[in-house]
């Protein structure tokens, strides 16, 4: 799910500045580990670091020469972000226009990837992040596969019909 959602920070009260993936779905702790080590408050919220004049990032000590470039890179990364006091925090679904998750949309995304109408591209299907149980069940239903015969050949005592398609083992 993580790659399929994004955070709309809103007023920044619910988003941790260093630890949450609110910029490009990556935490600033991962992008700037050297600055994270010297930050004054690792659990600071975005709203704690934003003022009406811009970003105010508190560090525990003065910067060394080589760290100044890293702070500049951090500020460049933050340049497009503006925090408003009236907006609310939201987690949005990437794959819908309105950002609202639906099972139907997630199902279509799982079967077809990013483009086109649902096609049964089995290579993509088997390599997808869909749980294995769901993949196997879907494949059985679509292919109308009846595995009773195979299990009976292995000596298993089974009811002589498939519960999915109601066919006997002889097809």
TrEMBL record:
Residues 101-167 form the Reverse transcriptase zinc-binding domain. InterPro entries: RVT-Znf. This is Reverse transcriptase zinc-binding domain-containing protein. The lineage of its organism: Eukaryota, Viridiplantae, Streptophyta, Embryophyta, Tracheophyta.
């Amino acid at each position: 799910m993580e790659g399929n959602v994004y955070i709309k920070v809103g007023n920044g009260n619910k988003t941790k500045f260093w630890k949450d993936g609110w910029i490009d779905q990556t935490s600033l702790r991962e992008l700037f580990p050297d600055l994270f080590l010297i930050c004054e408050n690792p659990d600071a919220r975005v709203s704690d670091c934003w003022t009406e004049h811009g970003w105010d990032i508190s560090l525990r000590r003065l910067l060394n020469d080589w760290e100044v470039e890293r702070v500049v890179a951090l500020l460049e990364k933050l340049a497009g972000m503006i925090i408003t006091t009236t907006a609310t925090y939201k987690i949005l679904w990437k794959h819908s226009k309105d950002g609202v998750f639906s099972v139907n949309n997630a199902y279509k995304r799982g079967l077809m990837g990013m483009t086109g109408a649902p096609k049964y591209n089995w290579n993509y299907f088997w390599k997808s992040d869909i749980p294995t149980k769901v993949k196997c069940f879907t494949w059985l239903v679509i292919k109308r596969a009846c595995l009773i015969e195979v299990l009976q050949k292995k000596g298993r005592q089974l009811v002589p019909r498939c519960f999915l398609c109601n066919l006997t083992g002889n097809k």
